[in-house]
Design a protein that fits this description.
RNA Polymerase Alpha Subunit, Chain A, domain 2, alpha+beta
Length: 426
């Protein structure tokens, strides 16, 4: 019950008044005992100092106010009873009123109220210079800058960060946010050996590196950084054993997925050309068949992106000359140069293969005339940030020829600023 009374302002005021009266009689008794010639007791004078938050009155929907001090020191002098009540009740304000002012710089008075009529109030500052700007809200993208990638454990790399949300709303004075085009979050990946998530407050800095006084919504960004062992995308090769039934022939083996990501140390990846299936038994097969083949993990590799793959076995009679649409009859592998476009050489360095082994499928007569010069391999890097990326390959091949693999090629973009920082640290 008493706790509920203590939460009411008027209860506190009554208590303060009672204390003030008690203090009055104590002072009066002291005064009468020391000065019998005085007809009336004199209430004691006192002083104290408070740090009071500064309130601002203005249209917060349309405007933003800058340079407003968070709090000011206030010196108070007056009867001890009044100061005691002031300390207990806290029914006072220090404020600046901007309600009738437009945009620009203004020197405005600092006002105080609620301290009591018999209390002398001395403010730390009588006026403050305020800047009023029109409020504006813009939506900007969020990006991630990976720090200390060179300090990852050996054999590990980071992938593209997943950012949630990918854009935020920034609100503030129009003159202050006009140059805000992007928010970049710095994340330290040193010594990380597994995927991790961070929740970070977005901070916008001015030209001097100081936090800009703006509001960002939402005020927490969730970033997931994939960390995994060194990997590469490698073509899959179907291996068979045994023979189909008499009077039949194996026309082709068609893969649902033609390549797989392999996780392994760099020296192992450098010597990997293909990932083979465990041999598929063809004995007695006399028609088309779909099987699920297990992929073999190469020596020295730690994992595969998938363990199994579907294989369509095309089996025809020896005298059957059908060439159904989509059922290709021959394959060839060529080494083809890789070209790139959309690469920002000013801000990034690029690590990517110069050549790639391309597997093509088509009719035998057509494939016999296909050479490396007949195939174009291009990677479009437009807009890619710093980091490791699996880039879809753009192919140019002769009509009637189908690309089996690879469908993606790994590239790594490194910011020039990151390389400069790494060099300076070494």
């Amino acid at each position: 019950m008493i706790d509920q009374w203590l939460q009411h302002k008027w209860f506190l005021r009554i208590i303060a008044l009672a204390l003030a009266i008690l203090l009055y009689f104590m002072v009066a008794e002291t005064s009468s005992s020391t000065s019998s010639s005085s007809a009336l007791p004199i209430v004691g004078q006192s002083s104290m100092a408070l740090d009071v938050p500064v309130e601002v009155f203005f249209d917060e929907v349309q405007y933003v106010a800058y340079n407003v001090p968070e709090e000011l020191n206030v010196e108070l002098q007056g009867p001890s009873s009044s100061l005691t009540m002031t300390r207990l009740v806290k029914d006072y304000q220090v404020f600046v009123d901007l309600t009738n002012l437009g945009t620009g710089f203004h020197r405005v008075p600092v006002e105080a109220r609620g301290f009591g009529g018999d209390v002398n109030v001395k403010l730390e500052r009588d006026t403050v210079e305020i800047y009023i700007d029109r409020k504006q809200t813009v939506e900007v993208p969020v990006s991630v800058n990976m720090l200390n990638k060179d300090q990852l454990p050996e054999g590990y790399v980071v992938g593209d960060a997943e950012i949630e949300p990918t854009t935020v709303k920034v609100s503030g004075g129009a003159s202050r946010i006009q140059n805000v085009k992007e928010i970049t979050l710095n994340i330290d990946v040193a010594n990380q050996n597994q995927t991790f998530t961070r929740e970070l407050p977005p901070t916008i800095l001015d030209a001097n590196g100081n936090p800009l006084n703006v509001t960002v919504e939402p005020n927490i960004i969730r970033v997931t950084v994939p960390v995994y062992e060194q990997s590469a995308v490698v073509p899959i090769e179907v291996v068979t054993t045994g023979d189909v039934a008499d009077e039949y022939r194996l026309v082709d083996t068609l893969l649902a997925d033609t390549e797989v990501r392999v996780f392994a140390p760099t020296d192992v990846l450098a010597n990997l050309d293909v990932i083979e299936t465990i041999p598929i038994d063809l004995d007695g097969l006399d028609g088309n068949n779909k099987v699920t083949a297990t992929l073999q993990l190469p020596d020295g590799a730690t994992a595969l992106g998938k363990k199994e793959v579907e294989v369509q076995l095309l089996v025809r009679g020896i005298d059957d000359t059908r060439d159904d649409s989509g059922e290709l009859t021959e394959r060839v592998r060529l080494t083809v140069p890789v070209s790139v476009r959309g690469f920002d050489r000013t801000n990034y360095t690029l690590r990517s293969p110069d050549v790639v082994s391309v597997t093509l499928s088509g009719k035998r007569a057509l494939l016999e005339s296909v050479t490396s010069n007949s195939v174009g391999v291009t990677l479009d890097l437009t807009g890619l940030p710093s980091g490791l990326h699996g880039v879809d390959v753009d192919y140019e091949v002769p009509k009637g020829v189908t690309v089996v693999s690879p469908k993606t090629i790994d590239v790594e973009l490194t910011s020039v600023d990151d390389e400069t920082e790494t060099s300076s640290l070494q």
